[in-house]
Amino acid sequence: MPRARGSGRGAIGNPPVRFDSQSSEAFDDGWSTLETDIGELPRLDTTLTRDTSRSVISWNTSPDIGFDRAVNPYRGCEHGCIYCYARPTHAYLGYSPGLDFETKLIYKPDVGELLEKELRRPGYVPRTMALGSNTDPYQPVERTLKLTRSVLEVLDRYNHPVGIVTKSSGVLRDLDILSSMAKRDLVRVHISVTTLDARLARVMEPRAATPARRLHAIAELTRAGVPTGVLAAPMIPGLNDAEMEKILDAASRAGARHAGYVLLRLPHELRELFESWLHEHFPDRARHVLSLVRQTRSGGLNDPRFHHRFTGQGVYADLLHRRFARAIRQHGFDEARSQLDCGRFALPPDPATAGSLQMSLF
Question: In the structure, what pLDDT confidence band is assigned to residue 157 with cuts at 50, 70 and 90?
Answer without folding.
Answer: very high
